[in-house]
Specification:
The chain is of the alpha/beta class. The chain has 10 helices and 12 strands. Helices cover about 40% and strands about 25% of the residues. The chain has a 7-stranded mixed sheet, with helices on both faces. Strands 1-5-4-3-2 form a 5-stranded antiparallel sheet, with helices on one face.
């Protein structure tokens, strides 16, 4: 399902959105959200309009390129018709599928990395070791800025009991364990003896091995066998995406009030934005993203950190 965007310079974005929604509402489904965002849904596509102080942002999506061109044309023609006091310039970007979207511009990504607390020599060595040992799979390792975020969140929550689903070679485990007090505990769940053997080595070298209990086996079985009372302070989910909904539910049930669950890869490389991607893991993460925002047990925020990170805090 292709997507295209347009940024239209104007200081009348709110007014135009109201006019478009009001007019198009006679021909299509159109509504304005509480934050002023307008949505116009046509038979084969839709357009989301977001107001800003100096421009109007428009995002068009459709079932194919032909339908996308129709959405663009309909919205553009009506917008220009309402612009009687200024000459608007509407330029749409080329159509792009979800997996072609650039979530974080490389320039911004590099700036973020260089302006976050840097990884120490041990973590940098682990990155190299992971790349050498796992090849293409090394992409599963979190970045240093996300690691710094995990350590900070553990400390901010005041966590003593932590859970991790998906260990890989142990980078995130070290970041979590470093945020725990000396008597804190991290339950780390994974299915690979091979990759976690690297993790064990680096946990020892990082001086946090005594805080980490590794459970090898299906994580959902490990989670469901935990005490049912709410005692988990923080959890990090970064494992097989098909089982994300099951992991989330098992953890939220055991999350204490004020506790936090952190989910990685909630964008799936932009594929969650595009309904054309319908493999099982796409549907699972897309469905969970929708579930979390409607879950009255938590307050949540989705962050554009790397491949998308969701924070859900138990009420």
């Amino acid at each position: 399902m292709p997507t295209s965007t347009a940024f239209v310079p104007t200081d009348r974005s709110t007014r135009y959105i109201k006019q478009l929604v009001s007019h198009m509402g006679h021909k299509a489904a159109a509504e304005i959200a509480g934050d002023g965002r307008g949505t116009i849904t046509l038979s084969r596509g839709a357009c989301v309009l977001t107001p800003s102080g100096d421009h109007l942002e428009m995002i068009a999506t459709a079932v194919d390129d032909e339908a996308l061109a129709t959405v663009q044309d309909v919205v553009t023609r009506h917008l220009l018709r309402f612009a009687t006091q200024e000459e608007l310039k509407v330029e749409w970007t080329a159509p792009a599928a979800g997996d072609a979207l650039q979530i974080v511009d490389p320039v911004a990504g590099d700036y973020l990395l260089t302006h976050s607390t840097p990884a120490d020599d041990l973590l940098n060595e682990l990155v190299v070791r992971t790349r050498e040992a796992t090849g293409d799979a090394s992409g599963m390792q979190i970045s240093s800025d996300e690691g710094a975020l995990l350590t900070m969140l553990v400390r901010m929550v005041g966590a003593r009991n932590a859970v991790e689903v998906g260990v890989f070679t142990g980078y995130s485990s070290i970041c979590i364990a470093r945020g725990l007090p000396e008597d804190g505990r991290l339950l780390a769940c994974d299915v690979s003896d091979e990759w976690t053997s690297i993790a064990r080595e680096y946990w020892e070298r990082a001086g946090v091995a005594d805080r980490i209990e590794l459970k090898i086996g299906p994580a959902i079985e490990t989670l469901r066998a935990l005490p049912s009372e709410p005692y988990i302070d923080i959890a990090f989910i970064d494992a097989d995406k098909v089982n994300y909904p099951a992991y989330y539910e098992a953890i939220v049930q055991r999350l204490r009030p004020g506790g936090l669950v952190v989910l990685d890869n909630v964008f799936l490389g932009g594929r969650v934005f595009d309904p054309a991607f319908q493999e099982e893991h796409h549907r699972a993460v897309r469905g969970l993203n929708d579930l979390i925002v409607a879950d009255d047990r938590v307050d949540s925020v989705m962050l554009p950190v790397r491949d998308g990170v969701t924070l859900a805090r138990r009420r």
